[in-house]
């Protein structure tokens, strides 16, 4: 039996996955900063790590999945200066920041629910863990790796680099970072407080007008973005845990800073496997406000965006995401999504066919071998595209058997149905979309097929052929078998 091998960004190697505990896995995934509606850039991470979680649970592990909500401290531009993203949005909408956080947390969770992403076991909010963050900042200061200036606390990158490898995760060399920082403007508010421009904020002093602020040993202020994840991961998963996940855009400075903070407190990297998914582009371009190519998930599900020709379902979007390997760039376009929709429909048609196959005395296909190939693909760095290719092979087999061009035994038919259920539904998480429209279509089609059967019994072959031909012209395929007629679109 094969074993899961996963690409560890920290070591830059494929590694056999060996959790700290034989039967349990601790996994922390960076969640959203909830200051706006979920958009296309928010969807890949939840799906990728949902499939990883599903596969680990399928493999017998109990997974403690922690995914945070950032509702304070994430400043505009992802740096140490500027306005808090939530505070800025609250000012624009003239409501409280926590109203912004609550509204967009609900919309984010509704989005991933529609996409059949399992909810995390723990969903901590940064604002609810201020005490833990203050305690961790104090521990970094006690280790001599942070300093306070005018009520703000900064991590001392130079002091840390004397004993540890700062930049290992992202592949950045400290000397290059220093040279680059020297070319940047030092006129930003607070930059002159730092001993060197690469130091990052653990705690920021709040001006009196700053809405979100808490008391601390250093005065009124709020936590830095990076310390939040370190503190929450440590609280719920311990000093060392198995998996830390997120997007490649978080490699630097966020995850690099997390490693530094946690190592300053404990002496070692907090996560054994750092797993990162690549980005989504739109028609070959990075998503950016200046390009006006950002698409919210609601727009995609409703089809009301200039780049879209129609609405697409949550499962179509999930299937589209899984057709590319998680470490590859995924380019979004209306054409690609339309192709994904058609491909998914082909699979569901095959699933429907497989449920009604007629068994033979002998079989001509090794379904078990195909299921083993699915497992080998997933063990090879979560190769979901290869699993999908195997599912299309299973669909081909189902259609050949249905057309009388291949034989399967009753046991093999059971195995084929189990393959679809296990790999399409349970592990890839592609759930049947039984909307009221689909149920209505099923009902109408069954009525027409019943009318066609009655027409044949009445020897009204002209009506029977007319029903079939008109449905064919509309894109339906009607197949007659010993056990009745079936249809697919």
In short:
With 489 residues, the protein is of the alpha/beta class. It has three domains: 5-277, Rossmann fold; 282-427, Anticodon-binding domain of a subclass of class I aminoacyl-tRNA synthetases (Four Helix Bundle (Hemerythrin (Met), subunit A), Up-down Bundle), CATH 1.20.120; 436-488, no CATH class.
Please summarize the sheet with the most strands. Answer: 4 strands, parallel
What is the assigned CATH homologous superfamily of the largest domain? Answer: HUPs
Shape: elongated
Strand content: 5-15%
Question: What can you see in these coordinates?
Answer:
With 489 residues, the protein is of the alpha/beta class. The protein folds into three domains: 5-277, 3-Layer(aba) Sandwich (Rossmann fold), CATH 3.40.50.620; 282-427, Up-down Bundle (Four Helix Bundle (Hemerythrin (Met), subunit A)); 436-488, no CATH class. It has 16 helices and 15 strands. The protein has helices spanning 44-58, 85-93, 97-114, 130-142, 157-161, 174-182, 225-237, 251-266, 297-302, 314-322, 334-354, 367-379, 384-402, 410-427, 436-457, 461-473, and strands spanning 5-8, 13-16, 24-29, 62-67, 146-149, 152-155, 200-205, 221-223, 241-247, 271-277, 280-282, 285-286, 330-332, 477-481, 484-488. The strands form five sheets. Strands 4-3-9-10 form a four-stranded parallel sheet, with helices on both faces. β3, α1 and β4 (62-67) form a beta-alpha-beta unit. Mean pLDDT is 89; it is low at 182-189.
Write the topology of this structure.
Elements: E1 5-8, E2 13-16, E3 24-29, H1 44-58, E4 62-67, H2 85-93, H3 97-114, H4 130-142, E5 146-149, E6 152-155, H5 157-161, H6 174-182, E7 200-205, E8 221-223, H7 225-237, E9 241-247, H8 251-266, E10 271-277, E11 280-282, E12 285-286, H9 297-302, H10 314-322, E13 330-332, H11 334-354, H12 367-379, H13 384-402, H14 410-427, H15 436-457, H16 461-473, E14 477-481, E15 484-488
Parallel strand pairs: 3-4, 3-9, 9-10, 11-13
Antiparallel strand pairs: 1-2, 5-6, 6-7, 7-8, 11-12, 14-15
Helix pairs in contact: 2-3, 4-7, 4-8, 7-8, 10-11, 11-13, 12-13, 12-14, 13-14, 15-16
């Amino acid at each position: 039996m094969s074993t899961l091998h996963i690409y560890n960004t920290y070591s830059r190697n494929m590694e056999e996955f060996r959790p700290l505990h034989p039967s349990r896995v601790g996994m922390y995934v960076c969640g959203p900063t909830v200051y706006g509606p979920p958009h296309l850039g928010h969807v890949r991470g939840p799906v990728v790590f949902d499939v990883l979680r599903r596969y680990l649970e399928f493999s017998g592990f109990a997974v403690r999945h922690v995914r945070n909500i950032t509702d304070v401290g994430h400043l505009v531009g992802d740096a140490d200066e500027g306005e808090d993203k939530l505070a800025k949005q609250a000012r624009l909408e003239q409501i409280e920041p926590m109203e912004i956080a609550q509204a967009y947390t609900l919309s984010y969770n509704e989005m991933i629910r529609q996409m059949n992403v399992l909810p995390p076991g723990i969903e901590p909010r940064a604002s609810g863990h201020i005490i833990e963050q203050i305690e961790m900042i104090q521990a970094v200061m006690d280790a001599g790796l942070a300093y306070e200036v005018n009520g703000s606390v900064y991590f001392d990158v130079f002091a840390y680099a004397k004993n540890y490898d700062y930049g290992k995760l992202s592949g950045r060399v400290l000397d290059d970072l220093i040279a680059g920082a020297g070319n940047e403007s030092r006129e930003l508010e607070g930059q002159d407080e730092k001993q060197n421009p690469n130091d990052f904020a653990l705690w920021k002093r709040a001006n009196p007008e700053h809405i979100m602020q808490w008391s601390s040993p250093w005065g009124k202020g709020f936590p830095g973005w990076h310390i939040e994840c370190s503190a929450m991961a440590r609280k719920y998963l311990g000093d060392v845990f198995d998996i830390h996940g997120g997007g490649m855009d978080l490699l630097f400075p966020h995850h690099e800073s997390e490693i530094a903070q946690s190592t300053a407190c404990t002496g070692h990297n907090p996560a054994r496997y750092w797993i990162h998914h690549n980005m989504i582009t739109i028609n070959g371009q990075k998503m950016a406000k200046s390009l006006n190519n950002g698409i919210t998930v609601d727009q995609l599900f409703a089809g009301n965006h200039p780049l879209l020709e129609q609405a697409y379902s949550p499962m179509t979007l999930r299937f589209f995401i899984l057709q590319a390997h998680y470490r590859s760039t995924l380019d979004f376009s209306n054409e690609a999504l339309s192709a994904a929709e058609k491909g998914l429909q082909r699979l569901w048609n095959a699933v429907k066919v497989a449920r009604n196959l007629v068994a033979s005395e002998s079989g001509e296909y090794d379904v078990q071998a195909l299921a083993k190939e699915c497992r080998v693909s997933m063990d090879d760095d979560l190769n979901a595209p290869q699993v999908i290719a195997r599912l299309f092979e299973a669909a081909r087999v189902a259609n050949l058997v249905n057309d009388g061009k291949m034989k399967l035994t009753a046991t093999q038919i059971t195995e084929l149905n189990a393959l679809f259920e296990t790999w399409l539904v349970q592990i890839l998480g592609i759930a049947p979309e039984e909307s009221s429209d689909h149920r209505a279509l099923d009902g109408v089609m069954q009525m027409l097929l019943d009318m066609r059967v009655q027409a044949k019994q009445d020897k009204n072959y002209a009506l029977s052929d007319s029903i079939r031909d008109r449905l064919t012209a509309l894109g339906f395929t009607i197949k007659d078998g010993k056990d009745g007629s079936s249809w697919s679109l």
